From TrEMBL:
Belongs to the metallophosphoesterase superfamily. YfcE family. Signal peptide: none annotated. This is Metallophosphoesterase family protein. PANTHER family: BLL5683 PROTEIN, METALLOPHOSPHOESTERASE. It comes from the Bacteria. SUPFAM superfamilies: Metallo-dependent phosphatases. Residues 1-192 form the Calcineurin-like phosphoesterase domain. It comes from Deinococcus arenicola.
């Protein structure tokens, strides 16, 4: 059983299209999107339609929630992300917004190596980011509570894998706005065979220039285009 996990697409249709080509060449049994279809990027509607058309299993991300659900005005949040989310709300159709609103907080998948749990942030709150560098005991307790051999979380925009005891913790990174100092779209493949899961991290190249051009064409913050081209913030 082979699973592909992607996260934080953030409205980048050029990156998402490249990921689809990669997954066509690297066959998997299931694709799971760990939230944040929208935010930052210039093509939120096309990204939603793409994921819906592919039938990929998808969970709710923090940006998705803030676009689709009225969570109130949060003091101090007036940054780049907030500017784009306001714009995103205007760009989506009612059907696309409803698709985001109906996304579950996470999910679980039974596999030959044990249960896989996935969510964006934390098990019950997409905005409460789980620190995969937390003390070992803290993550051991979480793994025991969830009863999982693999735990996949999004939100950091940096691909990462860590094994603690019998549990593998994974952050797929970001398809649309990777921050590991290398431009490209991040994809994680988990092979659930044998005695333990095998995790492989992949960086997929795509047309960064077109993604950056779309940002500028819609007069979105130019810093987003810079991140797309460089893979780093600032």
């Amino acid at each position: 059983m082979r699973l592909a996990f992607i996260s934080d697409i953030h409205g980048n249709i050029h990156a998402l299209t490249a990921v689809k080509r990669f997954l066509t060449e690297n066959i998997v049994n299931q694709v799971i999107v760990v939230g944040d279809l929208v935010g930052y990027g210039a093509s939120p509607g096309p990204v939603i339609d793409f994921v819906k058309r592919e039938g990929w299993t998808t969970s709710l991300g923090s940006s998705d929630m803030r676009v689709a659900i009225d969570v109130g005005d949060r003091e101090g949040r007036r940054g780049v992300a907030d500017q784009v989310l306001v714009w995103t709300k205007r760009m989506l159709t009612p059907e696309q917004t409803d698709f985001l609103r109906r996304l579950p907080a996470g999910g679980r998948i039974p596999t030959p190596v044990g249960r896989v749990r996935y969510f964006h942030g934390s098990p019950h709150d997409p905005e409460q980011r789980l620190d995969l560098m937390a003390p070992t005991r803290e993550l051991e307790d979480l793994a025991q509570t969830l009863g999982a051999r693999v735990i996949v979380v999004g939100g950091s925009h940096v691909p990462f894998s860590r094994v603690i005891g019998e549990t593998t913790f994974v952050d797929p990174g970001s398809v649309g706005l990777s921050l590991n100092h290398e431009p490209g779209a991040d994809v994680v493949i988990v092979d659930c065979i044998g005695r333990k899961p095998r995790v492989s991290l992949h960086k997929v190249t795509y047309d960064y220039a077109s993604s950056a051009f779309d940002i500028m064409a819609w007069s979105l913050p130019s810093v987003i285009a810079d991140v797309i081209r460089t893979g780093r913030m600032g």
